[in-house]
Amino acid sequence: MRNLRYYGIGIVILAAGRSIRLGTPKQLLMYKGDTLLNNAIKTACEINEDSTVVVLAAGRQAKLLEKDINVRTQYNFQYKDGIASSIRCGVKYLKYDRRPIQYIMLMTCDQPHVDAAHLSALIAKQEETGAKIVASLYEGRKGIPALFHRKLFPELLSLTGDTGAKHIIEKYDADTAVVPFPLGAIDIDTEEAYQALITATPGK
């Protein structure tokens, strides 16, 4: 359902990671009664379901994941090249969306503490400051979830490798506003990280 307040904001959920360090698809790990991927989708849909897209790695993993996804998907055939290829895939799709997209928010499914309240805070910070970029701040660094103005879409589409949008945030540091989000430092890349998450959340 479209949240009219956030009309014009597209959301790209980057979910094409191969989970090499974990050894099993992190997207399917259970947390709070659902998978990490579905939790991320539900969070994004509270902001703007109509303009949310999930980027999956093309191939067998996509078939495994897509059966439970209730939003639009795009398949990244270059996923082995790194996260930048998934950003390009999602941004290109939303850039030509039937709805006018002014900002794109990038998020992943392996930051389990991201919720709609934080995404709303990023949007509110943009409305307050007019910044081209609004990033989450954790462990002294700026990162995703982050919001990017359409003037930066060409630079998002030119990203390469496995560094994501970090270089763009650094390049436009003076035009970047931040929202503190200490829990953003928690991401699930290893079995140890997942077990620590479960241990810290009894019954989940």
List its traits.
alpha/beta, 204 residues, Spore Coat Polysaccharide Biosynthesis Protein SpsA, Chain A, globular
Describe this structure as you would to a colleague.
With 204 residues, the protein is of the alpha/beta class. The chain has a single domain, classed as Spore Coat Polysaccharide Biosynthesis Protein SpsA, Chain A. It has seven helices and nine strands, in the order βββαβαβαβαββααβα. The strands form two sheets. Strands 5-4-1-6-8-7-9 form a seven-stranded mixed beta sheet, sandwiched between helices. The longest helix has 14 residues, at 116-129. The radius of gyration is 16 Å and the shape is globular. 40% of the residues are buried. The model has no long low-confidence stretch (mean pLDDT 88).
SSE map:
Layout: E1 9-15, E2 30-31, E3 34-35, H1 36-48, E4 52-57, H2 60-66, E5 72-76, H3 83-95, E6 103-108, H4 116-129, E7 133-138, E8 141-149, H5 153-156, H6 166-171, E9 176-180, H7 191-200
Parallel strand pairs: 1-4, 1-6, 4-5, 7-9
Antiparallel strand pairs: 2-3, 6-8, 7-8
Give a brief outline of the structure.
By secondary structure, this protein is an alpha/beta fold.
> How does the helix and strand content classify structurally?
alpha/beta
How would you describe the shape? Answer: globular
**Main beta-sheet annotation:** 7 strands, mixed
Query: Which regions are unreliable across 5 or more consecutive residues at pLDDT < 50?
Result: none
CATH architecture call: Alpha-Beta Complex
The largest beta-sheet arranges its strands as 5-4-1-6-8-7-9
Helix and strand string, N-terminal first? EEEHEHEHEHEEHHEH
Give the terminus-to-terminus CA distance: 27 Å
Number of E strands: 9
Helix tally equals 7
Strand content: 15-25%
Report the radius of gyration as a whole number of Å.
Answer: 16 Å
- What name does CATH use for the topology? Spore Coat Polysaccharide Biosynthesis Protein SpsA, Chain A
